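Methods — Computational structure assignment.
A single polypeptide chain was analysed. Its primary sequence is given first, followed by the predicted tertiary structure written as structure tokens.
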Amino acid sequence: MFQSLRLSRSVLQILLLCLITVTNIGFANAEQKHQVGNFDIHYMALNSTFITPEIAKKYGIVRSSYKGLVNITVLNTNLEGHPAVPVEISGIANNLLDARINLDFKEIREGKSIYYIAEIPYRDDQDVNFTIAIKNGNQLNTSLKFKHKFYVD
């Protein structure tokens, strides 16, 4: 049984790595999308242990059972190929007790892809509310709100 769990976790890590490193062809169904005008904002939250140690080291991400990641990508659907666009991004996270944490987003560029990743501490079985401000010149100025429940693995 434990080998099965270990294999499942390895498969999950590979799938999430593919999700994070995918280019402009789109994301898997695990991600969420919010459309604002000509922009698709793709977002997701996940436990930092789902990424490989190599990817974590490459991008300076701390892997921990008590640390999650928020991943944001903005695509311009008005342009051919729906390319990723650079944005100004900031945000806060708060739990149900209203403890607030400012999100410090890192921009990651891989080829034509642009990702914004922030780390977030959490406790087991904790709901975290995210409010993220996203701006692209005078074409996009919006706020994204979503909730994610984190679990300690």
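Note: Strands lie at 32-36, 39-47, 67-76, 88-95, 100-103, 106-110, 113-121, 126-136, 140-150.
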